[in-house]
Batch of 4 targets.
Target 1
Amino acid sequence: TFWNILADADPAVERVNSALRFALRKPRPGKNGHKDSQGLWATDVDTIYQGTPRRPRLSGFRFSTAGNGVQWEVTAGAVMGMVHYQGKFGADAYPGGLNRYIEAARTSAKNLLSMYGGIPNTVLGGNYPAWQAFSAYQPVDPAYPGGSDTGLGWPYLRYLGTAPTAWVGLMLLHQADASEPVDHNANPYAAP
C-alpha cells in the first residue's frame, strides 16, 4: 500500500483511500497472541528497554496481515507514503485525516532512535525458538514471542538493523516533522 503510494502507482484517490482504510485498521486479538488479518496498524510495548520512559508504547505497521508486531522499515515507508499522499491529494482527501497516524509512527521511530542510537528490527523480545513456537500457534510469553513475525515464514529479531535505520533516515530526510517542507528527493520510489 504505502510503497505504491510513494511510487504514484495508482492515480485514483478512491482506490488509494480503500487501501488506506484497510491498512489503518487495528487488528483484533486472535488465537495465542496472533492478531486477525484485518489491518496493519499496531502498537507494541518495549518491555526490555531499561531507560526512561519505562515500557514505552510504540506505534507503526505490521509487515503483513499475517504478521505480528510493528516492523520499522515498513513503518518508516508508511509515514513517507502518507505524507506523499497528503501532498498529492490534499490533507483532507482521506476521511478523518492521516496526521494522527503519521505523528504517532514518526514520533515512535524518533523515540527509538533516541533510545537505541539506531532502529531495532522490533521491540518485541524472544529468540528464534520462541518465534518457532509462536508461528506454530503454541503459547508463548507475549513479551517474548520471538520478535516481530512477518507472517511470511521468518521473524525480525530484536537487534539494531541496517534496513530499519536506513528507512527511518529516509523518512527523516523526507520530512522530519510536520512543520518542515517535504524533500521529494528522499523518496526512493520517485521517478528520476
Target 2
Amino acid sequence: MNAVNLLLTLPLMCTVNAFIHNPYVTSERQISTAPIKRQITVVNADATAIAEKVSVDPKEAAKLFGRLAEKYIMLDSSGGLCCYSACSDCEFRNPEGGYIMADQSASRPKWIPCYETREFESMDKSHTTKWSSEIFKDGPAVTKEQFIETIVSLPYAPILGGPYVGASAATIEDTTAASALFDALAGEKEKLTRHRMGRRMREFSGGEEGLVWKAFIAALT
C-alpha cells in the first residue's frame, strides 16, 4: 500500500474502530431491553409486597386468642353500687340500655382485658391479666422472638365468638399469626412494652375494657 492509499484509508479505519470500542455507543437491542428489566424488577417487588399482606388464617388467630383471652373481666367499679331494681333515674344504666357492670364472667374465654391489673376495693376484688403476667414475667419489654415463644407455650382453651378449635388441634406450628400480632402491637418498634400492649389493645377494642374476638381478628387482618 503506497502512502497516498494509506492516508485515504486511515480515517475510515479510525471511524470504524471508534464505533466498535466507544462505550457510549449501544445497540438498539440493548437500549430496548433495559426498560423491560426495570419493569420486571418493579413487578417482582409488588408481588413480594402483596405476598406479605396475606390475611392471617382465622383458625390460627383463634389459637392465639384462646391463649390470651380470659373468662373474667373487671369493668367499672361504680357498677357494683347499683341495686339493680330498674330505677327510672338510675345513674348506673347505659344510655343504650342495660346496666353498667362492675365485672363479667363467661363460660369460655371471651375477652383479653386491656388493663394489666385492676382492683375494686369497695368490692374486695382484684384481677391481674394473663397476658401481663405471662408475657412480661421477666421484665417490662420483650423482643419478637420472646413474645412468640411465650405465646406458643401458653395453655389454650376454646373461645367464644370465633371459630372453634379444639384443644387437641390448637398446637401452634406456624408462627405467622403470632408474628403478625407482635407487629400489630409493636408497630416499628423492636421491642414491645407491657404499657404499649395494653394501650394498643384498647385502641383495637375502640376504647372498651376488653378485646373481643371480632376486634382481635380485625387487628390482624
Target 3
Amino acid sequence: SPQSDKWPEATGCANSVNTCPASNNVQAVYFGIVMPIPQVTVVAHAGFKASSTVVYVQRQNYIVVKVSLDTIPLGDTVVFLTAGDSSIATVTESVLFLRGENVTTVWRNITIFNVRPGQTAISLKSSSQELDYGGAEAHNAVQVNCQQGFQLSNLLIHVQAKPTNLGTAFLAITPDLPPSHNVSMTISSSKTNQTVVQTPTVVFV
C-alpha cells in the first residue's frame, strides 16, 4: 500500500515487536489506509433515590430506609442491594419496581441490620430488559454507621420499699466493646413519681 504522509514517525522504541514495529531502534514509518474510527455507543442509565444517605443503627437493631427509582422504568426492574462489609451490616437483598410505576410517589422499604459496630456502605445495582435500568449502579449510596451497644446486669429489677435495702436496687451497665474514647451515658426513669435514678450520668473511659 502507498505510504501516507499523514502518519507520524516513531523513534526510540524498545527492542520489542510488541512495543514497536521497528527493531534495533531503527526509525519506523507506518503504512496503510486510514480506517474510520468505530462508533462508540454511550448508554446514560437512570438513577436511584434514597430517603436517607447516612444512617445510624443501634447495636443489635435495625433501621428501615426507603429507596426508589428517579425515573419511571421502561420495564420491570429489580434492584439488588449489597453491603460493603456484611460482617458489619446486612441489608434487604432486592426490591422490585414494575414497568411504568409512578416512582415519584412509590417507594420500597429496605431493612439494614447492625451486626457489629463499624462503618460500611450500601450499593445498588438494577436488572432490567430495558436500557434505562439494565445494569444501572450506585456505589456506596447509603453510608451506614453501626453503633456500639451496652450490656445490662438485669432487664427486670425489683426495688423493695424502705427500710429494705434503703429502698434501692442496683443496675450494672458496661459497654459491649472497649470504647475508643470517653463515653457519657444518661439514665432516666420513665415514671419519676415511682422511681428515680440516683446516678443519672455515668462515664466510660
Target 4
Amino acid sequence: RASAAGMVPVYDLFNHHNGLRNVKLTLAEDGVRLVALEDIPEGNEIYLSYGIKAASTMFRDYGFVEPWPQIWTWTDDGSGDRYSFVLFPGGVVAINPTEVILKEMIGSGSVDGGLERFQERVREHTRNLHHDDLVRFRNASRNLLAGLPTDAVDDGVILGELQNKREEMSSSETRELVHDSIAAVEYRIVFKRAVEQAVVVAEEAIGGSSDDDHSSREL
C-alpha cells in the first residue's frame, strides 16, 4: 500500500522509522521502484517513512509511537496557542521546530555520525530561540502536565494493574479490550515523559538565552 502508487506487493512488510529511513518509493513508467538512499549492508533492516506526522497521529493510525524522532504537539487550553517539539535520542529536544529541521531529520541516523551531527544542530536551534518563546513554551508545558489527572508515575501504577488483570483473564475478547487500555496508558506515559524532558531542555536554554536571541518560526 502506498497512497500515491496504489497497491504495492511486499511494501507493507517494511517498517517505518523517520530517523533511520534508507529507502524511498518512486513512480516509474513501468510501475514503481524501491530505491535505496544509501548502501544497505546485507542483513540490515529496510526502513521507509510514513511521512512527517505527530506522535498522536502515528498512534491513532498505526498503533505505535516510534522511538525517535517523536513529534509532539498540543494546543494550550488557556491561550489557544499551538506548541510543538521533537524528541531525539539522549533527551535532545527541538522546541518549536522549523520545517527545515523536520525535513532534514528524515534519515538523519541512517549514516555513520549523521545523528550526532543532527543532534548538535538541534541543540543549537533550541539555544538560539528567543528567551520569551522559551519561557512561553516552558510555562505551557508545565500547565499541560499540571492539568492532567495523572502523572507518569501514576500511569506506571495503572499500567502494572492492567497488565496483571490481563494475565488473569481467560476470555480472548476481554483480554483484547484490556490490551487496548494498556496501549493507551503506555502512550500517556511516553507523552508525559517527553513533555517532562522538553521542560528540562527549555529550562536549560532559558538559563543560557538572552533577549537579543532571534525567534524561530513555529509551525
